[in-house]
Design brief:
Helix content is 41%, strand content 13%.
């Protein structure tokens, strides 16, 4: 009897030792990740160490921008910024007489969230293709995108930074960060896998590391619970904010091309593929199921089309032009190098077909 108790006691101690060791390892991993985030500007850690990472808050513009004139190696990408805090080459405030000046305004996709080098972003690729078309001009394409920007931020960016630069064309590729606002009402997405769901502070990085590196283990595709019904959304703020942005651009007399927002997952894919390719979107917009994401993204693209049409603004239906999967996408919504070039070529084609820039230069 004593022997059994002794064995049980030893077994219990081993279990507790293993549990304690796992906790210690997680703590060590978390400390290491936080240290790396502090040093290299990890995107997730920007919420805490914004002024210590690649971003800073410009008091004059009241905007989050990249720290000017930096070369920041973040491991998965190297960000080079110009003197005004954009991931773009240096550009003078005033336009030259022989210059064509274009800007792409948006958020993380325009900035090149997962592009390892600046040269793989959409703006660089569009500049190269436009320069081949307009050989007698100097072409500059400004990358006016900052990760996390909402419509309101883009409006400020246009009015305070871009409009004074004498643009010949503005390409408006807003992204759908405003859709994420629907999920900020306290709802947290859960996956119905029979286990209790616990939440941790937003700054915890080690759990995110485990999630990102256990794709195979999560391939069983637990059902993604939808906490917000897309049919119940009040879409008026989205419409009004996009209308304000577009109205500001049109009032300034700057020609504009509106781009609809694509995604790497679609309804024609198998359930397994949709689950895989929607991973980032499900993390970003946690209160919607995969089917809900389809509905929400499609319906809000339609709002952008309706508003743009009311202003007689040209539209490029990128959501219908680019194939899903990983050929052009690095995750649910961001492009790889091939995707940036594919999109830039489509932009060039649309710009020329719509007569937004003429063969001789600006319109």
């Amino acid at each position: 009897m004593k022997e059994k108790k002794s064995i049980h006691s030893v077994g219990s101690r081993k279990v507790w030792l293993c549990f304690a060791l796992a906790i210690v390892l997680l703590i060590v991993a978390e400390v290491a990740l936080q240290a790396r985030a502090y040093l290299y500007g990890d995107e997730k850690a920007m919420q805490i160490v914004d002024d210590e990472g690649i971003y800073f808050f410009n008091e004059d513009y009241q905007l989050k921008l990249i720290q000017p004139n930096i070369v920041s190696d973040e491991g998965y990408r190297t960000v080079r910024s110009n003197s005004i805090g954009l991931r773009s080459p240096e550009i003078s405030q005033s336009k030259q007489s022989d210059e064509i000046r274009v800007a792409i305004l948006g958020a993380s996709t325009v900035m090149g969230m997962l592009n390892p080098v600046n040269e793989e972003t959409i703006s660089y690729r569009l500049e190269e293709h436009l320069q081949q078309k307009f050989t007698d001009k100097k072409v500059n394409v400004i990358s006016a995108g900052i990760a996390g920007y909402y419509f309101a931020d883009q409006k400020i960016m246009f009015e305070k930074m871009l409009e004074p630069m004498g643009l010949d064309l503005l390409v408006l590729y807003t992204g759908l960060n405003n859709v994420s606002l629907y999920c900020l009402d306290g709802g947290v997405a859960a996956e119905s896998n029979g286990l209790l769901n616990y939440s941790l502070p937003n700054w915890v990085l080690s759990i995110e590391l485990l999630i990102k590196n256990t794709t195979i283990l999560r391939a069983l595709m637990p059902e993604v619970e939808q906490l917000t019904d897309p049919s119940t959304l009040n879409k008026k703020p989205f419409r009004d904010n996009f209308d304000d942005l577009l109205q500001s651009i049109k009032s300034a007399g700057v020609p504009v091309l509106v781009i609809t927002n694509p995604r790497s997952f679609n309804r024609e894919m198998s359930a397994e593929e949709q689950y895989e390719y929607s991973d980032f979107a499900r993390l970003k917009d946690q209160c919607f199921s995969i089917e809900g994401l389809h509905d929400v993204y499609d319906s809000h693209n339609e709002i952008m089309i309706e508003v743009s049409t009311s202003y007689n603004t040209p539209i490029m239906r990128l959501d219908q032009e680019i194939p899903g999967g990983d050929t052009y996408f690095a995750d649910s919504i961001h492009f790889n190098a091939a995707g940036s070039d594919f999109v830039a070529k489509l932009m060039l084609k649309t710009i020329m077909e719509q007569g937004l820039l003429t063969e001789g230069g600006e319109k």
